[in-house]
Amino acid sequence: QVQLVESGGGLVQPGGSLRLSCVASTSIFNIHSMRWYRQAPGKQRELVATIFIGGGTIYRDSVEGRFTVSTDSAKNTVYLEMNSLQREDTAVYYCSAHMTNPTADYWGQGTQVTVSS
Q1: 3-class DSSP state for residue 80?
Q2: Are 38 and 91 in contact (CB under 8 A)?
Q3: What pLDDT is recorded for position 80?
Q4: Distance of alpha carbon 99 from alpha carbon 117, whole angstroms
Q5: How much is the average pLDDT of 4-19?
Q6: Strands 77-82 and 67-72
Q7: Any alpha helices (H) in the chain, and if so which ranges?
Q8: Which residue among 20, 61, 71, 85 is buried most deeply as judged by most CB within 10 Å?
């Protein structure tokens, strides 16, 4: 069982920045990949960014160049740096840990990001 705790959400003006954090209860080296999802009101949850602990990242087209996912292994933490935020980025953001052997997915509780003037 892996616990994930997100933080860093809040209210920001369009064009602003936020950094989300997701702390895992296990070493990130035990994890295959970490993913950030988001869910806006009335919409389905969508994948925003993936970081493979062995190396490599993938971003949703709409956030490419604005968002950066990274890890700090010493802190068992994954970050999502969000710049040039737009109103369309407003959502609850969730981090998820994908494990293998055995396969399992764990989720955090979510953190609200609101982009508004």
Answers
A1: strand
A2: yes
A3: 98
A4: 39
A5: 97
A6: antiparallel
A7: none
A8: 20
CA separation for the pair 76, 24 (Å, rounded): 6
Instruction: Give me the amino acid identity at 103.
Output: T
Q: Are 72 and 79 in contact (CB under 8 A)?
A: yes
Q: Helix, strand, or coil here: 106? A: strand
Neighbours of 111 (CB within 10 A): 22
pLDDT above 90: residue 101: no
C-alpha–C-alpha distance, residues 53 and 66, integer Å? 21
DSSP state at residue 29: G
H or E segment and range at residue 26: none
Place of tokens 């609101």: 114
**What are the structure tokens assigned to 53, written together?**
């602990």
CA dihedral 81, 70, 31, 9 (to 10 degrees): -20
Token pair belonging to 94: 């969730």
- Tokens matching residue 112: 């609200």
